[in-house]
Write a structure and sequence with these properties.
Number of strands of chain A: 2
Helix content of chain A: over 70%
Mean pLDDT of chain A: 92
Shape of chain A: globular
Distance between the termini of chain A: 12 Å
Oligomer: homodimer
Order of helices and strands of chain A: HHHHHEEHHHHHHHHHH
Structural class of chain A: mainly alpha
Largest sheet of chain A: 2 strands, antiparallel
CATH superfamily of chain A: Farnesyl Diphosphate Synthase
Number of helices of chain A: 15
Low-confidence stretches of chain A: none
CATH class of chain A: Mainly Alpha
Strand content of chain A: under 5%
CATH topology of chain A: Farnesyl Diphosphate Synthase
CATH architecture of chain A: Orthogonal Bundle
Chain lengths: 310, 310
Amino acid sequence: MNPVLKNSFATYLPPVNRYLRGLSFTDALQKRLAPSQEKAMHYSVDARGKRLRPILTIMAYRLLAEDWQRALPVAAAYELVHTYSLIHDDLPAMDDDDWRRGEPTNHKVFGEALAILTGDALLTEAFRLLAEEVEAAAAVIVKLVATLARVAGGNGMVGGQVIDILSEGVVIKENTKDNENQEDLLELLETLHRRKTGAMITGALLAGADLAGCDNDLRLRLEKFGRLIGLAFQVADDILDEVGDQASLGKDIGSDRELDKLTFVSLFGLEGARQKLLELKQQALLQIEPLGAKAIELKALAEYIVDRDR
Amino acid sequence: MNPVLKNSFATYLPPVNRYLRGLSFTDALQKRLAPSQEKAMHYSVDARGKRLRPILTIMAYRLLAEDWQRALPVAAAYELVHTYSLIHDDLPAMDDDDWRRGEPTNHKVFGEALAILTGDALLTEAFRLLAEEVEAAAAVIVKLVATLARVAGGNGMVGGQVIDILSEGVVIKENTKDNENQEDLLELLETLHRRKTGAMITGALLAGADLAGCDNDLRLRLEKFGRLIGLAFQVADDILDEVGDQASLGKDIGSDRELDKLTFVSLFGLEGARQKLLELKQQALLQIEPLGAKAIELKALAEYIVDRDR
């Protein structure tokens, strides 16, 4: 890993994890009457994750200000929303996953009913953090709430998940010659991932920048940068599913192909997807180039997302 | 129905329903790629409901100001959160209900996966409404967000639902002589309902009052009033389940007793529950008495909640 990024992770990850672990989700009465609720919430929040969204919030904040600890409640709000989405995605009615990051999924440990409610509570708690724990002018907090609601909601993350579920029947015939159909499928695929993953990645960046008081020009650059690295993240995922190392990924390889899933690899082939990934990275770096040395962390992160092996 | 209340419902209900029906939850692209998402969201939001929470928001607002249409986005936010909670409560993993208000439940029409995501999207949209659609000072909006997150979250509505699920095994022996145990059970039952139903009823009142700029004294009165009518609402429910008219209720009578459910009737007996209901009503009316003629609507509503036959 790039030494810049290694240093960033070493600086930001422990405080982010400490902040998340330190959250008390339920009051004394709730803890007494429903002791497993706090456990179920922390079970998923405390699980080892990349913490990509909190890191993005902090890096965007640091483009403008040094006291990045002030961004922790905002960073945590994004991680809570990400966590709730994983809990709901893993449910039997959704992806029906028993394992996540080497541990049983929330509903396997606490049951489906509590897992649904745990997700609901985490989503709600994210908005409470923004409204009650962030030190900022009220107008800034309102902006943070609006952005989170947009990127997490029916036209954002949840919308992407809906498209994903509804398009599951879409099967890619190998060597399709129907160009018009390929364009439709590319729009479907890009919108799906722009909303399902890209929106929250962009939102996390914007939240950090908004908290630090960014201007419109920077906001637009970060929005484009977020979109591009969000999409790159997914293209890299699709390539890794095809050629990655099973052991370092910790999941089965080739599962997308077996399921006839619509992916960037199924649409463009392996070489085409690699080309697409390179283009996305170059476009993303172009967006933050004018920021100069300040953007060194975001640059390293974009490269890491593209070049990662898991 | 009391003529005051009849007039209030006739005034507020059509604009509330119009506002809810008029909401566009998804953008043009989402509507094209996932057409059933908008349908699934409106299916439950547009269903005939009492609209108790929006009415409470408007009535509380009118204690202080006349232009109650300004409260519509806030009122709608509370109804969206209430609607999402019904969708998730009806899921097979939760109460497993196939019918609600004479119509198939959301998951029976759109499938479980979409029903879960529809609930998630409605909860998120409620916060977007507060942040983007309410005309008020930013500090007021932050207060509205904080209150909604508190009353809907892990120590509020979701917390009450968790207690409900975890305490399902609690069976009431008839004529229990164990007074200490009865006190524990009463605390469990009251906390459950104070959080599951009472919190959102209180929140809806506070939101209307906060939007209109209420002072601390009024806020405290409304908080107590909301708690009391929220609990009264549930005691009345328990009594109706025992002695109500099956046809006007639209649901089976005696189901709580058959299920050995912990209710105010199982705990106090029918007469004891009626006595409790009367006490709650008197305490509630006492809270708003100092407000004088302005509180005529809230008084009528409190009486309606207690004396209703369905």
